[in-house]
Amino acid sequence: MTRRTLLASAVPPALAQSPVPIIDTHIHLFDTARPQGIPWPPKDDAVRYKTALPPRYIALTRKLGIVGAIELECSPWLADNQWVLNVCAPAPIMVGMVGNIPPGDKNFRAELDKHAANPLYLGIRYGNIWGFDIGKELSKPEFVAGLKYLAERGLILDSANPNRKLLEDLRRASDLVPNLRIMIDHLPGMEALDKAAAVLTDLAARKQIYVKVSAVLKKRNGQTITDDAFYKPVLDEMWQRFGEDRVVYGSDWPNSDGLGAYEQVLTVVRNYVSKKSRAAQEKYFYRNSLAAYRWKPRTAEQRKLT
Fold first, then answer.
1. Are the C-beta atoms of 141 and 150 separated by less than 8 Å?
2. What's the pLDDT score for residue 158?
3. Which fold has domain 21-297?
4. pTM above 0.90, yes or no
């Protein structure tokens, strides 16, 4: 054995490998300086009410291995679908956005076609947000027709803020539109997760349904919890239920600022997946996002992932 071989064999595998590149599938963009204001966050939110645009995000994540991000719409205003597309256009780190066009609206197809002509437009949000009630809407033929059209266009439905009722409603939506890709956002942050075991088992059996391992960070007595052991049970449940092929990374920035710094958000899940195979880490941090969102690369770094 040569000295070089001996030294190489002494390097732990985790150090010998390059860091896994990351696609952050859940950030929000808004500009507090807009003349018309913004619907969220409110002005009295001292932590979150700060302009959140790509340059700030890039500066925050430059040394953390983030090579791309997807915006999740945080505004119920229809015009903001185009506003976000305009903001993302000059920022190659942004590989897409998930907008807000209610599927039951009479102009849904026209609006979806208009925005989805831009390859950055990846789908829509619907869930416990903006007063939406997907369970009620699923009884309306026009709403189901809208979801079917979304699926036909190859676009995704992101949910928001899960509880057991929403999970049951998503199962019903999947029954009605079996080819619709669905992303369950923030599942680790759901209260009473153990009381939704039956519906989670049903959802986990559907290969077109993905889970965003976001909203993981928690506080205790006003302090961010950094103990890896605290987070292990809920993260174990995500992987055991849905498997390594259907979990994706999302930070929920800057909403996450209320719980901790971006690096803390990332460190919790990075520490957890670091104990898994390189292949599993790649799936969580970028490969599964490609399957779920079908985003298109805009930079050389992103093209290496596809």
1. no
2. 98
3. TIM Barrel (3.20.20)
4. yes
